[in-house]
Amino acid sequence: MQSPGAGWADDACMRASVPTGTGWRGTRCSRAGLGLIECLLATLVLTVAVLGLALAIGAGRQQVTYAVEEHHATSLAEQLLEEIVARPYAGNGTARSDWCLDDYDGFAEAPGGLMDAQGELLNDEYQGFARACSVTPGSITLAGLSSGPIPGKNVVVTITGLTGAEWDFERFIPEPSEP
User: Fold this and answer.
1) Does 10 reside within a domain?
2) Model's pTM, two decimal places?
3) Of 36, 47, 80, 126, whose CB is crowded by the most CB atoms within 10 A?
């Protein structure tokens, strides 16, 4: 009986033998393993696959970052627009909590200084953004209404993100009708 390791090289050569129609033709022990060229090709294929995955992960991460930034910008703009819409159409206030619609024209907040209507700083996740507002007179005409153009004011809130991207949010506020 042979010991477990005896004849191992012969077994490897036998598995690498080439069959013929009448039996086994000599062994080719030189073809029993991977050659240098095969190893280099396998390494090249693996490198290309890993680079492709790395690029896909990087692009996905960039899209997620942009989506989060856009979500924060939308939240900031909606918060300011809702604050503006809740104010009186005309008047004059000295503190932000007493402002009317026109007082928001030229309003701007720099990164690190974003506040709510009561003067309290917003959460840290929003402090890297900047926001500005403009209020201009305007009018709109609605199809199907024979009353003509509706006077009011266009409010545009511009949010500047962490990466320098800008988003504009616009709302038309009609002039109140007189009772």
Assistant:
1) no
2) 0.65
3) 80
Distance of CA 17 to the CA centre of its chain: 58
- Report the number of secondary-structure helices (H) and strands (E) in the chain: 2, 6
Specify if 125 maps to a domain.
Answer: yes
- Total structural domains in the chain? 1
Residue 101 structural domain:
50-174
pLDDT tens for 115-170 read 888 888 888 889 999 999 999 999 988 887 777 888 999 999 999 988 888 999 99
How many angstroms separate the CA atoms of 49 and 45, rounded? Answer: 6
Residues with Cβ within 8 Å of 55's Cβ and at least 6 positions away in sequence, in order, are: none
Tell me whether residue 144 is in a domain. yes
Distance CA 174, CA 85 (A): 10
Q: Let me know if residue 22 belongs to a domain.
A: no
